Each structure stands twice: as C-alpha cells, then as structure tokens.
C-alpha cells in the first residue's frame, strides 16, 4: 500500500493542546509486536528518521509554532536527537563574567516516569491526576518530536499581559519577518519534498489571537507555492 503523506501544522498554544491529545491518541494505536495488523497507515502522519548514532526514530510529520516560555520542560530541539545539539567551543574567562540562568522547570510525575525505561511499560496504563499538574501542553505530551518540528516565537512571551500576542495584525506582521519568510517556509518545503506521494496539509490553529494572522499568511504562502 502506498502512503499518501500529510504534513501537520499547529499554530498557537491552544492548537498545541489539541495537537498533544491528537499525537498521544495516534501512538496509543501503535502495534509494536505485529500481533494485530493495524488498519491505520501511520506513515501518512509519521516519518522515519535516524539519529547520528544510528538509532531509528518514528516521529510526527509536524511543524508547530508557539511563544517563548510555552514549552516548560520540553527542549526546543526535542528529546530524541541530543547528539545534534552543538557544544560551545568558546572558552570564557571565569573571573570576567557572571552567569545568570533561569530556574529549570520541574517535570510532573507523568513526564518523569515516561522517561524511565523501567517504569514506562506501567506508565502507559497508569492513571495520573494531570488536572492538578498541567500548565502547558507539553506537561501531558507522550509523543516525541523531531528537532525541526518545534518553532518558537521569541518576540512574544507566553502569558505576558503587558505585550500580548493578541491580534490578527500582529501575526501578519510576524509572518513578514525573515524567520518565517525563510526558515519556516523552508521547513515546509523540506517536509513536502521528502514525501513520495504528498496528499496535503492538516492544520490546527488558534483563531482569537495573533496566530490567526500568522496561520492566514502561512496558508497564503502555501497556496502561492
């Protein structure tokens, strides 16, 4: 059977809440033992990759966008490709600078346990009281993403009431920046070009804030392409 691939786009914090549920549900239907052949072709929404260490990965064919500070404990590069993270080659004079580092976010019990190979099999079927510990969508995310999937808008801070990203026009203006005119659109092209029988796009987007303008501009760029 030939897969007809789909690229998913998620723009906005609420859209990523919905998307986190969506990807969790997809992976719940994975059959790792081949005992029950699936009627779902997961290659439509997922792609196979390989780390520099030769480990095979199977991650969502996904590009998501959110604001700075919205990921909490989830690294922007994801957690599967740690070997891609560059090490700084700069040697600093320890006596001539002061290091100020943000407090590292604390992971909830669910995220802590799914990282443990020993506890993971039990964690899949375990019940967690996430209503008391979930602050952002990554708090209950089970899926793991490719490094290019997560795109952060550094110009705006998540839940910042002083400079909110709250209007259509702000999203349109942001779409004209080099980051989105070049980097984000290039990522779309890269995902599409690696497909053999590309079918189309699946988009989740916020519609009551700046992401409405950003997603509208994104769709216009896709149409022009």
User: How does the overall form come out from the CA principal axes?
Assistant: globular
- Ends apart, CA distance between termini: 28 Å
Unreliable residue runs: none
SS summary, helix count? 6
Cα Rg:
19 Å
Secondary-structure-based class equals alpha/beta
Q: Give the helix level as a range of percent.
A: 25-40%
Described by strand count, sense and barrel closure, the largest sheet is: 4 strands, parallel
Report the sheet-strand fraction.
Answer: 15-25%
What's the SSE pattern?
EHEEEHHEHHEH
Count of all domains: 1
Q: Could you tell me the mean pLDDT?
A: 84
User: What is the strand tally?
Assistant: 6
- The side-by-side strand order for the widest beta sheet comes to 5-4-1-6
Protein name: Protein misato
Domain DML1/Misato tubulin: 132-225
Subcellular location: Mitochondrion
Organism: Rhynchophorus ferrugineus (Red palm weevil)
List key phrases describing it:
about 220 residues; alpha/beta; 4-stranded parallel sheet; two-stranded antiparallel ribbon; 6 helices; about 30% helix; about 15% strand; globular
């Amino acid at each position: 059977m030939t897969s007809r691939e789909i690229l998913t786009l998620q723009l906005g914090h609420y859209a990523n809440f919905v998307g986190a549920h969506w990807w969790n549900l997809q992976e719940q239907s994975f059959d790792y033992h081949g005992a029950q052949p699936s009627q779902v072709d997961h290659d439509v929404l997922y792609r196979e990759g390989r780390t520099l260490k030769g480990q095979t990965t199977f991650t969502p064919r996904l590009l998501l966008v959110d604001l700075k500070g919205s990921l909490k404990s989830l690294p922007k590069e994801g957690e599967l490709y740690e070997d891609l993270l560059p090490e700084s080659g700069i040697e600093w004079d320890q006596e001539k600078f002061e290091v100020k580092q943000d407090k590292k976010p604390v992971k909830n019990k669910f995220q802590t346990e799914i990282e443990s190979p020993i506890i993971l099999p039990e964690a899949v079927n375990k019940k967690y009281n996430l209503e008391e510990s979930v602050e952002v969508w990554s708090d209950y995310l089970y899926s793991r993403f490719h490094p290019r999937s997560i795109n952060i808008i550094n110009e705006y801070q998540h839940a910042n009431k002083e400079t909110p990203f709250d209007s259509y026009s702000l999203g349109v203006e942001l779409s004209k920046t080099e980051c989105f005119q070049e980097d984000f659109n290039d990522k779309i092209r890269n995902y599409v070009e690696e497909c053999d029988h590309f079918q189309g796009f699946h988009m989740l987007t916020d519609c009551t804030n700046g992401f409405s303008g950003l997603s509208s501009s994104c769709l216009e760029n896709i149409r022009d392409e």
